[in-house]
Amino acid sequence: MKFKHTLSFFGLMTGSTLALSMMPAQAFNFTSGTALGTCDPISEYTMKSCTTDDGFTLNVTKNGTVGSLGGFLAEKTVNGVTGVGVYGDDHPNGSIEEIDYGEELALAIDQPSILNSLDLGFLYRPPVFQDQLNEIAEVSAGGITGTLTVLTSTTAEWKWNGITQMLTALSNSDENGGGWYRIFNPFGTTAVTEVRLAGALPEGDYVKRDFSLVGAEKVPEPATLAGLGLVGGALVASRRRKNRKAC
Q1: Residue-range definition of the domain harbouring residue 152
Q2: What is the pLDDT of residues 20-38, one digit of tens each?
Q3: In a domain, 115, yes or no
Q4: Prediction pTM value
Q5: Residues whose CB falls within 8 Å of the CB of residue 86, separated by 6 or more in sequence, listed in order
Q6: Is residue 188 a part of any domain in this protein?
Q7: Taking a C-beta distance cutoff of 8 angstroms, is the pair 102, 92 a contact?
């Protein structure tokens, strides 16, 4: 009896390991044109929502409500970097194709997932492109909010939950670059179902503090994969029982 239980246990463990190892990361990227689904192309000033091949849905939102701002998805390319923002600004000093203060772009995920990386673009320091402040992006997920702040032409700082991550530009924050930064594991191992991007408003000033979404990568949370492993393990155990009966 103990021997049978041991076989079943190892079957479950084997199934879980296989599920974890076989599940690839899922990603999209506007600059490389990877896995964009219905987000390719972005129909300028007509789309409030689109879904990538790997189950990310982009929504123009305000306080969590799709389309309540009255804006639309908008795509732009600067120095070879392509990102998606919002058309429908509330402020005269904002960009009409980026995410400004008062605007939100929500990234909904089809199942609880760990965010491996988040790519944001068009983040600059003054006086690049007439920006008046070091640009800051605000990112929220699972009740946690973090900020990405440009420090130099090649570096930025990601802060969340008391943790600081220093980033190096994938495309520099200067007149010849796209101000593109990649945040690795922005919320650690926390599984999330939605990420909200908004223009930050430090010290009551929003002037030229805007950015865009370039891409993201996720993996389903371990609990989901472990469930797949349990199914695989049960199948292994069942197969072995049938084989013993046949003998």
Answers
A1: 25-229
A2: 445 578 999 999 999 999 9
A3: yes
A4: 0.79
A5: 60, 69, 71, 72, 73, 74, 97, 98, 99, 100, 103, 104, 105
A6: yes
A7: no
